[in-house]
From TrEMBL:
InterPro entries assigned to the protein according to its UniProt record, in alphabetical order: AIM24, AIM24_sf, Trp_RNA-bd_attenuator-like_dom
Protein name, UniProt field: AIM24 family protein
PANTHER family tied to this protein: ALTERED INHERITANCE OF MITOCHONDRIA PROTEIN 24, MITOCHONDRIAL
Pfam families: AIM24
Species of origin: Streptomyces alkaliterrae
Length: 234
């Protein structure tokens, strides 16, 4: 597993920084633009996310998120919607999406679980798919499945506000608001806990409430802005 830079206090659980500068040929510029240097090779990115390029590039829309007919069928069944393009060329291509923040996650043969709406770009040789996540997806209104990225290379993820990675160990499990969840990696199990959120703890919650509890060994990536969920804004 990759090891982001430690920048937190062990007394509250260590905060792990995701990459914000450069990882390989991926570079984040101004927090909200991804620059990728290509030398005749390819990357896969969210369809329509290209904002500029230098050099010679070709763009090809991929069916089913790049996994062919099987990928189409899988995503229709699971509700995970991915419109992906493959970019090939020589030069530099720039990607962005809705002025959201971009973070870089390097993988070394492991798997990243990420919401489809938070996935911006991957190395072309990495494998994408879907995995069952249980009730967590239902609490977010995003279905019961999430997208997986497997292999070795760099993944660019999107977040509303700067994302951080929170370290989970067997001694330090983690509770996360579903609306703030972006992605996770490592050997983690997750459970949906109902009836309590951070806001209901201080008397400001209303309606049905959820938390996700992560246990095991790995990283959970969260954003400072929350999505709306079935239970309202938690």
């Amino acid at each position: 597993m990759h090891k982001p830079t430690h920048c937190g206090s062990p007394s509250v659980g260590p905060f792990e920084g995701v990459g914000l500068g450069a990882v390989g040929r991926f570079r984040v510029q101004g927090a909200k633009v991804l620059a990728v240097d290509l030398t005749g090779d390819a990357v896969r990115a969210k369809n329509g996310s290209m904002v500029a390029y230098e050099g010679t590039m070709t763009f090809k829309k991929l069916t089913g998120g790049g996994n062919g007919l099987r990928g189409v069928v899988t995503r229709r069944l699971t509700g995970e919607q991915m419109a992906v393009m493959e970019v090939t060329g020589n030069g530099t291509c720039y990607f962005a999406d809705g002025a959201r923040d971009i973070s870089l996650v390097p993988l070394h043969g492991d798997t990243l679980h990420v919401e489809a709406s938070n996935l911006l770009c991957t190395e072309a040789g990495m494998r994408t798919g879907t995995t069952f996540t249980g009730l967590r997806g239902a609490s977010q209104g995003n279905g019961l499945f999430t997208t997986t990225v497997e292999g070795s290379g760099t993944v660019a993820i999107l977040s509303t506000g700067p994302a951080i990675g929170l370290r989970v160990t067997p001694q330090t499990p983690l509770q996360v608001d579903p609306g703030a969840y972006v992605a996770h990696s490592g050997r983690l199990t997750q459970q949906l806990q109902t009836g309590v959120t951070f806001r209901t703890m201080i008397g400001e919650g209303s309606g049905e409430a959820f938390q996700i509890r992560f246990e095991g060994e790995g990283l959970v990536y969260v954003q400072p802005s929350e999505r709306n969920t079935i239970g309202g804004r938690l």
